[in-house]
């Protein structure tokens, strides 16, 4: 794609701007900021990736992954400030998922241990873990606020913190996993996933594109389950004080 063709795609930004202006939604500023930031960030990342791919050095690959993890942790942290130690808990969750998935992929020779495979796959895994963590924390916060009296009643009757928060915790884990599961049910029928579409547009064999997409689908399912469960069980003890009272 040429820069001229890329410039023409701004039509897809002008249409939302026109609609938000007409309907007085007040999203013009946010839309423009999001557009400018996405252009700058993606172009910078593109040049960085070109350098990393050409260098093919483990240190550069690791630094790129750490940069993605750091950005993801910072984004999730803002949604869970009510949880003590949320930064390291989110960081531990995302790092564990990254090590687990890459360990399986490289250890079983499913994908080569090269920057071309490690960085894009890591980006999808880390990004998905970030979104799922935010979904979990948002739902967990709402569940706790809605059932605070129930949790305190269980504690007053001699229940443990785990028993007091169990229903809210499980409900939040399920709610954060459902979007991933439901999207996979219609994949290929309602939507053609981004990775598969990108490979086909680039000229790859459709069957090979489908095989890689299936790999990503399975990875994201693991990411959804592990991120929600691990973050949930790391987080809930912080909601109680040393006297086992809900803070």
TrEMBL record:
<protein>
    <submittedName>
        <fullName>Iron export ABC transporter permease subunit FetB</fullName>
    </submittedName>
</protein>
<dbReference type="InterPro" id="IPR005226">
    <property type="entry name" value="UPF0014_fam"/>
</dbReference>
<dbReference type="GO" id="GO:0005886">
    <property type="term" value="C:plasma membrane"/>
</dbReference>
<comment type="similarity">
    <text>Belongs to the UPF0014 family.</text>
</comment>
<keyword id="KW-1133">Transmembrane helix</keyword>
<feature type="transmembrane region" description="Helical">
    <location>
        <begin position="117"/>
        <end position="137"/>
    </location>
</feature>
<feature type="transmembrane region" description="Helical">
    <location>
        <begin position="214"/>
        <end position="236"/>
    </location>
</feature>
<feature type="transmembrane region" description="Helical">
    <location>
        <begin position="59"/>
        <end position="76"/>
    </location>
</feature>
<feature type="transmembrane region" description="Helical">
    <location>
        <begin position="88"/>
        <end position="111"/>
    </location>
</feature>
<keyword id="KW-0472">Membrane</keyword>
<dbReference type="Pfam" id="PF03649">
    <property type="entry name" value="UPF0014"/>
</dbReference>
<keyword id="KW-0812">Transmembrane</keyword>
């Amino acid at each position: 794609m040429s820069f001229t063709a890329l410039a023409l795609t701004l039509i897809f930004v002008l249409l939302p701007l026109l609609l938000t202006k007409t309907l007085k939604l007040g999203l013009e500023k946010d839309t423009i900021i999001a557009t400018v930031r996405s252009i700058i960030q993606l172009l910078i990342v593109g040049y960085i990736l070109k350098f990393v791919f050409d260098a093919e050095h483990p240190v550069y690959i690791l630094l790129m992954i750490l940069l993605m993890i750091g950005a993801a942790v910072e984004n999730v942290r803002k949604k869970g400030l009510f949880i003590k130690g949320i930064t390291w808990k989110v960081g531990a969750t995302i790092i564990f998922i990254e090590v687990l998935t890459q360990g399986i992929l490289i250890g079983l020779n499913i994908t080569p241990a090269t920057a071309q495979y490690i960085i894009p796959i890591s980006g999808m895994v880390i990004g998905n873990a970030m979104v799922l963590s935010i979904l979990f924390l948002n739902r967990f916060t709402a569940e706790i606020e809605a059932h605070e009296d129930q949790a305190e009643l269980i504690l007053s009757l001699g229940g443990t913190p785990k028993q007091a928060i169990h229903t809210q915790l499980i409900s939040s884990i399920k709610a954060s996993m459902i979007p991933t599961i439901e999207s996979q049910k219609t994949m290929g029928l309602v939507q053609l996933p981004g990775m598969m579409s990108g490979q086909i547009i680039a000229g790859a064999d459709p069957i090979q594109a489908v095989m890689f997409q299936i790999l990503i689908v399975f990875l994201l399912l693991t990411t959804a389950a592990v991120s929600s469960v691990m973050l949930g069980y790391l987080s809930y003890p912080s909601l109680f004080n040393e006297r086992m009272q809900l803070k």
